[in-house]
Every structure is written in C-alpha cells, then in structure tokens.
C-alpha cells in the first residue's frame, strides 16, 4: 500500500509541475514594479489552468495594454473566464464590456446578466 501511495504522490507531483514555476505573488510584484513581461509570464499559465485571480489580472493587462497591445476582445475573454468562476469584479467589468460593446458585441441583456446582481437587495 505504501508503494502505491508513493507512486500516486509522484504522479500528482508530475501533473502539478507546469504550475510549479508560476507564482501568482511573483506576478503581482513584477506588475507593481512595471515588469509586465514577468507578470505575464507568471500569470498566463496560471490563468490557462483556471486561476481566477490570474485571469482577472490578465484581463486588466489586455484592457489597458500593459506589456502588450491593447486588445478589448482578449480582455473580455479573460473577464468571462474569471466571471464564470464567480469573481464579482470580473462579472461587473464583463457587464460593462457588454454595455459599452468593448471586446464583445453590445448587448444590454448580457450586461444586465453580469451586473444585474448589483441591483438585487441583500
């Protein structure tokens, strides 16, 4: 049983290796110091693996054009991925994207869908 557990642990560790080198906090520190290339290098793999914080931060980089060409469509894509995981800020900004037609077709129904929760009583 111990041998099986050791093998299982090794397999899990190997599966985790792609994310091992990426460090969300390292990306935050790089971003805050203006090193957008490092922030992108740290956050993109995490975002692609479903890290909502990294997705949200990539959205901001694409939205503002920090370290890359400004791209509303790519920003909206990352907004959506973070919003679908329940990130309230990402939902709000995705709703604004729909309201303003930035990176997505203007669609007020979608805007309300993503930011309508603001109008709901607690």
Describe the protein:
With 122 residues, the chain is mainly alpha-helical. It has a single domain, classed as Tetratricopeptide repeat domain (Serine Threonine Protein Phosphatase 5, Tetratricopeptide repeat, Alpha Horseshoe), CATH 1.25.40. The protein has 7 helices and no strands. It is globular. It starts with a helix and ends in a 7-residue tail after the last helix. About 11% of the residues have low confidence.
Mass-distribution shape: globular
- Radius of gyration, in angstroms, nearest whole number: 18 Å
Level-2 CATH architecture? Alpha Horseshoe
CATH superfamily: Tetratricopeptide repeat domain
Number of domains: 1
Record field, number of beta strands? 0
Classification by helices and strands: mainly alpha
Low-confidence parts lasting 5 or more residues at pLDDT below 50? 4-17
What integer is the average pLDDT?
81
In helices, the fraction of residues equals: over 70%
CATH topology type: Serine Threonine Protein Phosphatase 5, Tetratricopeptide repeat
**Beta-strand residue percentage:** under 5%
Largest sheet geometry:
none
Distance between the termini: 51 Å
CATH class: Mainly Alpha
Instruction: Give the helix tally.
Output: 7
What is the ordering of alpha helices and beta strands?
HHHHHHH
In terms of topology, how is this protein built?
Layout: H1 2-20, H2 24-32, H3 36-48, H4 52-64, H5 72-83, H6 88-100, H7 108-115
